[in-house]
Amino acid sequence: MSTLPAATDTARPLIAFGSVRHVRLRPSPHAFAYPTYFLMLPMRSLRRQAHAVLVRNRFGLIGFHDADHGDGRCDALAWLDELLAGEGVADGRGEVWLQTYPRVLGYVFKPVSFWYAHREDGTLAAIVAEVNNTFGERHCYLLHGDRLGWGRELSAAKVFHVSPFCAIEGRYRFRFLRAAHPAAAMACKHPGAIEHIVARIDHDDAQGPLLQTSVSGALVPLTAASLRRAFWSMPLMSFGVIARIHWQALLLGLKRVPFFGKPRPPRAFVSR
Over 90: is that where the pLDDT of 191 sits? Predict the structure, then answer.
């Protein structure tokens, strides 16, 4: 597993190159995979010291905006700290890593972002899965407790509408991996990779497994060169995310997968 910096160390931002995968098991099997990239940002370190190449809260080819998270304030880390404190998680004072899509040419749609809050000894205190739907709504699933850890499965009841082809029922099963990168096998494809990260979310309903999804990537340092590589390999990446969501919805409709109307969002912004 990864070796994380102590709370007083300054961690460096990373960018991951990888893929997003989605498998529907029934009633009509459907699967797709797309190349992607995403940011992995050490938010406490960035509060102590800005990073030279990270475009933050202003326009850039690739940039990060705090207001794209939480309640839309200009300091997303302050929002997360308040959320954790309000939920009784008092030991997440170590590094907080945010796995998220950047804005590309000023635009972004983030289906899900993950906040990894660590204790001062580097162990995981909590994970917040921040989910957005295409109706402009947002909900957070808070994962914590004795079973929390890299490689361990956690679950939460599904309460938030994401896809019109899934009812609001059943449970999500989460599993997260962050480990030293298998450099020998991947060196030609991801030069400079230092770690590999996988976030997997499976959805089970009353009949059993329904959806299997994941986003994964090889983590490399965020530099001017890696940002250029990301932009020129997928210059319309953010626009592609929303376009592919609607394209896959069309394909599911043509397969006559049952359609569910949009319900009201949950009253609580956070569920456990």
Answer: no
